[in-house]
UniProtKB/TrEMBL annotation:
It comes from the Eukaryota. This is Mitochondrial cytochrome c oxidase subunit VIc/VIIs domain-containing protein. It is found in: Mitochondrion inner membrane. It is a single-pass membrane protein. Pfam families: COX6C. The keyword Thylakoid does not apply. The lineage of its organism: Eukaryota, Metazoa, Chordata, Craniata, Vertebrata. GO terms for biological process: oxidative phosphorylation. Residues 1-11 have a biased composition (Basic and acidic residues). Belongs to the cytochrome c oxidase subunit 6c family. The keyword Mitochondrion applies.
């Protein structure tokens, strides 16, 4: 079968022009896939920006606040105050 259609050989099975191996995909498919990749990259970059923003505006100040609080926190003083207030049932206040 030396039958040619539009410069391409016909497939012997179903008489449809066979694709040459060096043909490019249609331009529209390339543009769609390119746009999809750009949108994906934009979503990833915006998520990364949100993570960095939250890290420096929420997480770091919170960690610093906890560090400052526990730097001068006296657990025995707190326990004594709660014991004197009668919070615990198993420990009696010192005056009683």
């Amino acid at each position: 079968p030396d039958v040619r259609a539009e410069g391409r050989e016909l497939n012997e099975v179903n008489n449809v022009p066979s694709k040459a191996s060096n043909e490019r995909p249609p331009r529209q498919a390339f543009e769609v896939s390119f746009a999809h990749r750009i949108r994906s990259l934009h979503h990833c970059s915006s998520r990364l920006q949100v993570c960095v923003f939250l890290q420096f505006t929420v997480t770091e100040p919170r960690k610093q606040a906890y560090a400052d609080f526990y730097k001068h926190y006296d657990s025995m003083k707190e326990f004594s105050a709660m014991r004197e207030a009668g919070v615990f049932e198993s420990v009696r206040p010192t005056g009683k």
